[in-house]
Amino acid sequence: xxxxxxxxxxxFTPKAALLASPLLVIVAxxxxxxxxxxLFGSPTSWVNELALFLSALVYLVAGVxxxxxxxxxxxSVIYDAVPRAIRRVFDFITLAAxxxxxxxxxxxxxxxxxxxxxxxxxxxxxxxxxxxxxxxPFVVVAAALMAxxxxxxxxRASRHPRPGSDRID
Length: 169
Known about the structure:
Elements (H helix, E strand, L loop, with lengths): L13 H7 L1 H18 L7 H23 L6 H4 L4 H35 L12 H29 L10
Helix pairs in contact: 2-3, 3-6, 5-6
Family: Belongs to the TRAP transporter small permease family.
Protein name: TRAP transporter small permease protein
Organism: Pannonibacter anstelovis
C-alpha cells in the first residue's frame, strides 16, 4: 500500500493535478453562471468565454503532457497481436499521421497565431477578452511540441519497445 503522500498511479503527480486544476475553476464558474441566470435572472457575460479559454489551455497542456509521457490512447488489440516488425510499421504510420497533423497545425497556424499575438486579438463579445491572442500562439507551440515529442517517442520505441509489447514471435 502506498504511503499517504504517494499516489497509487505514478503518472498522477501533484504537478498533473495542478495542471488539471482549471477544470475545477470551470465547474465552479459554470455553477455560478447557472445560479446567476436561473435563480437570480442575472446571467453573466464572462463565464462562457472564461470556460472556453481554460478548457482550451487544459486540452493543449494535457496533449503535450500525455505525449511527453508517451501514454496516449492506443488501440492495442491489433497492435499486440502482430509481430514486432509490423508494430514498427504501425508506429511509423502513427508518426507520419501525427507529424502531418501537428506539423501542419503548427506551420499553417503560425501566421494566424502571430497576427493574433501582435494585434492582441480579442474575442469580440461583450466581455471581449484577449483569448485568441493567447490561445492561437499556444496552439502552435503545443502542436510543435507534440510533433517533436512524437519523433522522440518513435526513436525511443525503436531502441526500447513499449512495456506490454514483448510478445514472443
